[in-house]
Design a protein that fits this description.
With 224 residues, this protein is of the alpha+beta class. The protein is built from three helices and 13 strands, in the order αβββαβββββαβββββ.
Length: 224
């Protein structure tokens, strides 16, 4: 369905440089995810049932579906949402923000080298909006300690070759095309890493239980 291999696309997404100017709203305000200022970790039990318009699944986010033509989503959300300008988001990645009442719900991502037209399928979706949750109630703002209780042991990682972006995966999380980014930043990671580790890749299962949280969720249509 898509033209790019999963390994190449995921590499581009993970190594994309955060220094590129993110999408802006009409008044000039940045709409890029505020990773460092993500919602405070939620320690309360997840909501037992998530409304479908706020559901994160391997198929998509809310009413947006991977593989759905952009025109189909625009038609489905006509009168309910506004689509922002297609602008640089990261190095080699562009984003179209989808807003409701001025608030970004999620982003439609695609390669900058492959402009996304209304006739093209949606390849990637990302949200940092805490309204959107998995069926188990996990999403942006969820404490990693809470997600660990739901999905099993958490492993945090970053790679200095990949802009030191920190991610977390869970031992029993069933989907292979969903990635969770943490609220950690270089110099202030959510995980505690051993100084003796060599090479560029770092992993740990030790993290700051009081503040470590999920900052954003990516759904990748290039991965099975």
């Amino acid at each position: 369905m898509f033209k790019l291999s999963s390994s190449l696309l995921l590499s581009i997404v993970l190594v994309s440089c955060a220094s590129v100017t993110p999408p802006t709203s009409e008044n000039g305000a940045s709409t890029s995810p505020a990773i460092a200022s993500s919602p405070s970790p939620r320690e309360t039990p997840p909501t037992p049932a998530i409304a479908k318009e706020y559901l994160i699944s391997p198929q998509g986010i809310g009413e947006a579906r991977l593989g759905m033509k952009l025109s189909e989503l625009k038609q489905k959300l006509a009168g309910k949402a506004e689509f922002g300008e297609d602008e640089p988001f990261m190095v080699d990645i562009n984003a179209i923000p989808v807003r409701q009442k001025g608030e970004v719900q999620y982003y439609i991502l695609h390669l900058s080298s492959e402009p996304l037209t209304d006739a093209d399928p949606i390849p990637l979706l990302m949200t940092d909006n805490s309204k959107y949750r998995t069926a188990e109630g996990i999403g942006a703002g969820s404490a990693i300690s809470l997600a660990e209780k739901v999905y099993g042991k958490a492993t945090l990682s970053y790679n200095t070759d990949n802009e030191s972006r920190e991610y977390v995966r869970f031992a029993n999380f069933p989907a292979t095309n969903i990635s969770f980014r943490t609220n950690g930043t270089p110099g202030n990671f959510a995980g505690t890493y051993a100084s003796s580790q060599s090479g560029s890749a770092y992993e740990t299962q030790d993290y700051r239980k009081d503040t470590a949280a999920i900052a954003s969720v990516l759904i990748d249509g290039y991965r099975p």
